[in-house]
UniProtKB/TrEMBL annotation:
ERAP1-like C-terminal domain segment(s): 523-838
UniProt keyword annotations, A-Z: Aminopeptidase, Hydrolase, Metal-binding, Metalloprotease, Protease, Zinc
Name under which the protein is recorded: Aminopeptidase
Membership in a protein family: Belongs to the peptidase M1 family.
Gene3D superfamilies xrefs: 1.25.50.20, 2.60.40.1910, Neutral Protease Domain 2 (1.10.390.10), tricorn interacting facor f3 domain (2.60.40.1730)
Chain's gene name: NCAS0F02430
Entry GO MF terms: metalloaminopeptidase activity; peptide binding; zinc ion binding
UniProt-listed InterPro entries: Aminopeptidase_N-like_N, Aminopeptidase_N-like_N_sf, ERAP1-like_C_dom, M1_APN-typ, Peptidase_M1, Peptidase_M1_aminopeptidases, Peptidase_M1_dom, Peptidase_M4/M1_CTD_sf
Cofactor(s) required, per the database record: Zn(2+)
KW Cell wall biogenesis/degradation (keyword) present: no
Lineage: Eukaryota, Fungi, Dikarya, Ascomycota, Saccharomycotina
Keyword Protease: yes
Record's cofactor remark: Binds 1 zinc ion per subunit.
Organism: Naumovozyma castellii (Yeast)
GO cellular component: cell wall-bounded periplasmic space; cytoplasm; extracellular region; membrane
A GO BP annotation: proteolysis
Length: 862
């Protein structure tokens, strides 16, 4: 064992699994399931006479080894979720290296969206309340569904059999081997899977219908409960297209005989990449394209491509332990943008990556409580917390950085060699670097190890002296208070200096400080195309110059400058004036992505100022209107199919920003649309701006409109509309209405899976932030019971309910509350939330007056 593996709490390796024969029969009356597991084991140590494997909330009825050997005792280690079977001394020595362990058991068909669980829904055709039985195993809930060696490197093959009422559909990772009716029950046996990890096992027993796409070698389907399946065609077609593309890109065939996608009614994540049987939250796979926003269309496309990328990254080649989770999630994230960019070049997803993925990565990684990409994890309840922006977004950003450094073709070649070498096995981060080094001839590990093993990223400070620039790196913290001992890492930084002559890709900053001589310093910018993971802090004069040089900068550069200027302002590296002047100068910005970044950045300033006096917040709205109103009026909000994607996005962004900054003309237009809509004119609100219109209605705050939106939630035209209405319910500021919305969170009106949606609406205004926190304290016992710490949802809820605050006083209050509670399963999330509040509180303390004066001096307030 290396020092890194010493701390892992793993099963003993005296026996390891080779094959599981599983038989499962759900009972929809008692919400239980009967199971029979026959596990073929390899005996690695004949001198031990015990077998330890994972189980959770599983009732074991009988255990037999090699047909007839019974354990002399059975124990359960609750803390580690391990069942221990002790056999008579000398048992293993007699078994010649292998044996089958047979376990009969009963599990709970639970309502916690984990393991083998029940998902409740209302049948669209009959109106009856029904259940589907489905699985969610990742990261460590396979042990709720069957006794197993629940670790990613203990790969085995699976032969699964499902038993139920004959009217129900049976699905699993593989195709059907045989289907029979025995004693009035349907018995379906599936073919044996390739070698795979426990967290990818899946089976479903439910009333399902499907649509299909025939453009791929093997059957590609989308399943949904009857009446919903038609909306699966978009995902089915995209699945076929994506599988074709990935097979060609990697030069490795998708190895299973079919690919099913299933829309699941209650689902804790967005989607899950089970091999051959991807499961989804309904809204992330079914799409009513005519009645959806562009965001929804892009989201479904992203999710489908992400889960399909996992069929290679994760399923075929798996991280050897959860520490390598980023290999799964970072890759799937990068890969989904890569394929999306090939399929829909108009969407310019790599530009959006800079506003989206990169900024998420930087935001989390600028907190003291961030963690390295490769983070040691010991226990089940620590694992769910690393499904975060570090594993996904920083992971993907690192891959983008390497792919730019090596060149995309070389990168893909190395990746494909890595996949080929480790297929059906497990790999470590080091194995990927090795393959990329071979493909490129460059020493990839030397550069990348620092980026994956160390927390954080640097801010590069630029000092100018004529044509000479001096660059210095320091760890960046959004609280701006980095201590010497936190600032010891020297990150290898690709400088990529852009000038009028092009980009110089030859320079790296490996040291603390370096001076570079430019030919001409009239125009230069570091981090060309924003491919590196760092923030650049320029002089005040340079920021002023950028404001006038927008035509020399690419879209990615402009997004990066806006985002960096805001980060530097909030952490105190440079004045907030630089940021405000920069965006004020770019009020004719033509790229919708840059505009979105400008609006996001102003949004985070506004969120920090949420508890400040009305007049300052009004002035910030006036400032925003100065950027968007005129153009919102000119471009208008009629949408036509002949509009390009970019024009549509621009119109949506302008309309949204004008509305939220209280432009009276646009606001009235929105309210008129809503009035017509509720009178029955279903075309009155263009689908692309429906959520914005709903928000405008909530901002106006009429109780009768709350009722109308609630009715839309109850009887929507589609799922997207349902959730848009639900989110909006949280935007009403009246205390009675807020209370009403909060009461829906626990009384069954809102599904557990959707609990965070109205919360997001509330988190956008100060009355809501306060109400949410009050609610969480009052209902803590119930909330923590409903969202067990094994799921990532409790952590998300804690973050949503606390991170909206902006003062040190709130930090004390939050700390005090959690002092007496177990923070198991969300301690990281909580620490991150508190760091976020700290950085806002410091920004306010520093720049409260400055911002007020700026707004006054420039005519945005009196
Ligand atoms: N493997 C994850 C699902 C998951 C997340 C399982 C957390 C267990 C805990 C899946 O591939 C995933 O990442 N889904 C994302 C969607 C994606 C487009 C970012 C999700 O669930 O939001
Ligand atoms: Zn994923």
């Amino acid at each position: 064992m290396t020092s890194a593996t010493v701390n892992r709490e793993v099963l003993p390796t005296n026996v390891t699994p080779l094959h599981y024969d599983l038989q499962i029969e759900p009972d929809f009356k008692d919400f239980k399931f009967d199971g029979l597991a026959k596990i073929d084991l390899k005996i690695n140590d004949e001198n031990t006479d015990f077998i330890k494997l994972n189980t959770l909330e599983i009732d074991i009825h009988s255990v037999k080894l090699a047909k007839d050997i019974k354990p002399s005792s059975i124990e359960y280690n609750k803390e580690d979720q391990i069942s221990e079977f002790y056999f008579p001394k000398g048992t293993m020595a007699k078994l010649a290296g292998s044996a089958t362990l047979e376990i009969k058991f009963t599990g709970i068909l639970n309502d916690q969206m984990a393991g083998f669980y029940r998902a409740k829904y209302v049948d669209k055709l009959t109106g009856e309340t029904k259940y589907m039985a489905t699985t969610q195993m990742e990261p460590t809930d396979a042990r709720r569904a069957f006794p197993c060696f629940d670790e990613p490197s203990l790969k085995a093959t699976y032969a699964i059999t499902l038993i139920s009422d004959p009217t129900l559909t049976h699905l699993s990772n593989m195709d059907v081997k045989s289907e029979n009716v025995v004693d009035g029950k349907k018995v379906t046996s599936f073919n044996t899977t390739p070698k795979m990890s426990t967290y990818l096992v899946a089976f479903i027993v439910a009333d399902l219908k499907y649509v299909e796409c025939k453009d791929f070698r093997i059957p590609v389907r989308v399943y949904a409960t009857p009446g919903n399946e038609k909306d699966g065609q978009f995902a089915a077609d995209l699945t076929a297209k994506t599988l074709n593309f990935f097979e060609k890109t990697f030069g490795i065939q998708y190895p299973l005989p079919k690919m099913d996608n299933v829309a699941v009614h209650e689902f804790s994540a967005g989607a899950m990449e089970n091999w051959g049987l991807v499961t989804y939250r309904v809204v992330d796979v079914l799409l009513d394209k005519e009645n959806s926003t562009l965001d929804r269309i892009e989201r479904v496309a992203e999710v489908v491509q992400h889960e399909l990328a996992h069929q290679w990254f994760g399923n075929l080649v798996t991280m050897d332990w959860w520490e390598g989770l980023w290999l799964n999630e970072g890759f799937a994230t990068w890969m989904s943008w890569y394929s999306c960019n090939k399929f829909e070049p108009e969407w310019n997803v790599w530009q959006e990556y800079v506003t989206d993925t990169l900024q998420h990565a930087l935001a989390l990684d600028s907190l003291r409580s961030s963690h390295p990409v490769e983070v040691p994890v010991k226990k089940a309840d620590e694992i769910n917390q690393i499904f975060d922006a570090i594993s996904y977004s920083k992971g993907a950003s690192l891959l983008r950085m390497i792919s730019k450094w090596l060149g995309e073709d070389v990168f893909i070649k190395g990746v494909s060699q890595y996949l080929t070498k480790f297929k059906y096995g497990n790999a470590k981060t080091e194995d990927l670097w090795e393959a990329l080094s071979v493909a490129s001839g460059k020493d990839v590990s030397a550069v990348m190890n620092i980026w994956t093993k160390k927390v954080g990223f640097p801010v590069i400070t630029v000092k100018e002296d004529g044509n000479k620039i001096t660059l210095t790196q320091n760890r960046y913290l959004s609280t701006g208070d980095v201590k010497a001992e936190e600032d010891e890492t020297l990150y290898p930084v690709f400088l990529a200096i852009k000038s009028k002559d092009g980009v110089d890709n030859s320079l790296t900053l490996n040291e603390k400080t370096k001076t570079v001589e430019l030919k001409d310093s009239e125009f230069f910018k570091l981090n060309s195309e924003q491919s590196g993971i760092y923030i650049t802090s320029y002089t005040d004069e340079r920021w002023a110059k950028f404001g006038k040089q927008s035509e020399l900068l690419s879209v990615e550069d402009r997004i990066g400058l806006v985002a960096d200027a805001k980060s530097l302002a909030s952490s105190g590296y440079t004045s907030t004036t630089n940021f405000l002047n920069l965006v004020a100068n770019w009020n004719k910005e033509e790229s919708f992505v840059v505009l979105e970044q400008i609006l996001n950045s102003i949004g985070s300033l506004k969120a920090t100022w949420a508890f400040e006096p009305e007049e300052v917040r009004d002035a910030l709205n006036t400032f925003t209107r100065g950027l968007v109103s005129k153009r919102a009026h000119e471009l208008g909000y009629q949408f036509s199919n002949s509009d390009s994607f970019a024009t549509q996005r621009m119109k949506v962004a302008l309309f949204g920003a004008a509305c939220s900054s209280r432009d009276p003309i646009v606001e009235k237009a929105a309210l008129d649309m809503f009035a017509k809509y509720v009178e029955g004119d279903k075309k009155a609100i263009p689908a692309l701006i429906k959520p914005i219109v709903f928000n405008a209605v909530a901002r106006a705050g009429k109780p009768e409109d709350y009722e109308r939106l609630f009715n839309i939630y109850k009887n929507p035209i589609n799922n997207d509309e349902k959730l848009a209405a639900l989110r909006t319910l949280g935007r009403f500021k009246d205390s009675k209405l807020l209370e009403r919305t909060l009461s829906y969170l626990l009384d069954g009106t809102v599904l557990n899976q959707d609990i965070y949606i109205p919360m997001q609406g509330m988190r956008s205004h100060k009355e809501g932030i306060e109400a949410l926190w009050g609610w969480l304290q009052k209902n803590w016992d119930e909330v923590s019971k409903r969202l067990p710490p094994g799921l990532s949802m409790l952590g998300s809820v804690v973050v949503i309910c606390t991170s909206g605050f902006t003062s040190f006083k709130s930090i004390d209050e939050i700390k005090k509350f959690f002092n007496t509670k177990s923070t198991k399963g969300f301690d990281q999330n909580l620490a991150q939330s508190l760091d976020t509040i700290t950085s806002k509180a410091q920004w306010l303390n520093r720049d409260r007056d400055l911002v007020k004066d700026y707004l006054k001096k420039n005519g945005y307030s009196k």
